[in-house]
Amino acid sequence: MGELRKSFHEELDEIQAGIVRMAALVTEAVPRATESLLESNLGLAQELITADDYLDDLSVHLEERCHHVLALQAPMASDLRALSTALRLNAELERSGDLAVNIAKATRRIYGTRYDATLRGLLVRMSDEACRLVRLSIDSYVDRNAGLAAALDDIDDQLDNLNRECVQAVFQAHNDGGIDLQAAVQLCLISRYYERIGDHAVNIGERVVYMVMGWLPEYTGSARLQIREQHHLGEAGDETIGE
Amino acid sequence: MIAVVVVLVAVAGFVLAGAVAWRERRHFVAAEESRRRHDEMYRRHEDEVAESETRLRLSLDAITQGVVMADADGNVLHRNPYARQFTDARHGEALVEAAVAELLAEAAEGRAVEREVELFGPPRRCMFVNALPLELGGRNYGSAALIDDITEPQRLDAMRRDFVANISHELRTPMGALSLLAETLAAESNPEVASRLAVRVQAEAIRLSAIMDDLLELSRIESDEAAERAPVAVQELINDAFSRLKPAADEKQVPTEAVLPALDMVVWADRRQIASAVYNLLDNAVKHSEAHQTVRVSARLAGGCVEVEVRDRGCGIPLRHQKRIFERFYQVDRSRERTDGGVGLGLAIVRHVATNHGGEVRVESTEGEGSSFTLVLPAADEASTAEAAEAASRQEAAAALPIGAGG
Question: Are A92 and A204 spatial neighbours (Cβ–Cβ below 8 Å)?
Answer without folding.
Answer: yes
